[in-house]
Fold this sequence. Notes:
Helices cover 16% and strands 37% of the residues. The protein is an alpha+beta fold. InterPro entries: AB_hydrolase_fold, CocE/Ser_esterase, Galactose-bd-like_sf, Xaa-Pro-like_dom, Xaa-Pro_dipept_C, Xaa-Pro_dipeptidyl-ppase/CocE.
Amino acid sequence: xxxxxxxxxxxxxxxxxxxxxxxxxxxxxxxxxxxxxxxxxxxxxxxxxxxxxxxxxxxxxxxxxxxxxxxxxxxxxxxxxxxxxxxxxxxxxxxxxxxxxxxxxxxxxxxxxxxxxxxxxxxxxxxxxxxxxxxxxxxxxxxxxxxxxxxxxxxxxxxxxxxxxxxxxxxxxxxxxxxxxxxxxxxxxxxxxxxxxxxxxxxxxxxxxxxxxxxxxxxxxxxxxxxxxxxxxxxxxxxxxxxxxxxxxxxxxxxxxxxxxxxxxxxxxxxxxxxxxxxxxxxxxxxxxxxxxxxxxxxxxxxxxxxxxxxxxxxxxxxxxxxxxxxxxxxxxxxxxxxxxxxxxxxxxxxxxxxxxxxxxxxxxxxxxxxxxxxxxxxxxxxxxxxxxxxxxxxxxxxxxxxxxxxxxxxxxxxxxxxxxxxxxxxxxxxxxxxxxxxxxxxxxxxxxxxxxxxxxxxxxxxxxxxxxxxxxxxxxxxxxxxxxxxxxxxxxxxxxxxxxxxxxxxxxxxxxxxxxxxxxxxxxxxxxxxxxxxxxxxxxxxxxxxxxxxxxxxxxxxxxxxxxxxxxxxxxxxxxxxxxxxxxxxxxxxxxxxxxxxxxxxxxxxxxxxxxxxxxxxxxxxxxxxxxxxxxxxxxxxxxxxxxxxxxxxxxxxxxxxxxxxxxxxx
Length: 668
């Protein structure tokens, strides 16, 4: 990592409050170049607290952009951080309207040329696309990283029409804790306590809403830009990583937006900005790459950025299974169009007699983390144990050339169910000569969603039907001597929440079943010219991380109770721990997640999460604590959720509330 200290412009920064039409003010931090000339503005718009939680990351990039001639602006969403107003649902109409107002306010400032860009990762990447679809006139360009165009079928709530237990629960619990954090009196002023209490009265666990919409209805269509790609008028640079669950959005955006104003970039990365150097690498000079985008679309520079291939993607070489890789072997390729004429769908047809598949309920414990962040236990380990609980079909890679794939594989399965509900999970693995099995990609389908994600249709008991669904996109080369394995299971806990009766599994008839791979032809002549500068950032903020005497908990620990027949996955998400900021704030957080299931009983599935957050300013004596507890269980008829929030100022409990809900299971 290059830490850059000299820039074309000297910079300054200030904290301001941006007024909204209804009188609420949003808290913002603006870095600007020292110049008399107006400059374009760049906006990153998040609920994650610019004064502390994202401050280290913000200081890596916002001053860097300012040093290159942009006003770079970080704004907290309404009801979060030191912004006014009350917290709402993610990406609700109010949040997006506020974002449009911020874009227009920035464009109207005397120091702004009137041209605005938006960027962000995850939440900030989502609302960049969503606000671009509302088409405020000043918004000319977007850089969206690790985001989605489809809030139902490619987000943290549902996968293939099934409840995504691992992140539906974890993210709802996280946002309950985050929304309960207080404003910081150093920045919010004397009214911080009243503001905090007002917010707490408005907090509602988001799990109530998410589990109330189990099919792709109007709730999920809101904010899903795939509903109308034509509404996006801004130029879009879409960025993702093959180890991020949102990477397929890049492929869809490049396919559906006009080629004159979209470019896609997919690396080997996890759910991180590509310059941060977190596993898996290699990292790239992402800030420099985005600067080219901004200079072209906001300053009119003829710098060749649109001469790049519409899609640049990393294709990984074969690698042994591991839960972390500092760097993956492979290379960059470019596609002159997407879908690409160099990528041909090739079917691999299953062979053999019909096979009954009733996977143990704990199949999936080796799935890895749904959102890899670059931690040591994020990625799936050797898949041989999972493969043993699945029906496997193999295809040897012969000849002297690898089978190179780029895009989304698909499977067609001929299934018979003796119950009305079930799930199917397909995993594509690279099996080495030593027998080790590396997960390449996967997909899932709730069989009641086989006719569309907007409806739930029970299976006709005792009948065969053919179902087809896609796996997540990937770039991978299977070398000669390896085997391509397609493993199919009827369970995948804790990713997929099982339904009563699904333990019976189903019968798969290989006749009429196949996997279709997006096989990329031999590399075009002259390929290899895709290069990136090394990563660089602005000087770090200077946050310190005090050492503790406590032994760290394992990131992912599997516990089996042999007598009870239960399996428990204990997760430490490692979001940040304890840190001390240069302004004196001590911020500590600790989170834990537990996923439990009993063999043979899908109704035993249970998730639990606990959060503890402490904010402390020793110089003033201010201390605030947030503790939350969340749980989801299920029975024959629905989901049972419980949530609790306890907030303290010093030793005084200022807020305590519990919620108990029963939500009927209509689909999922």
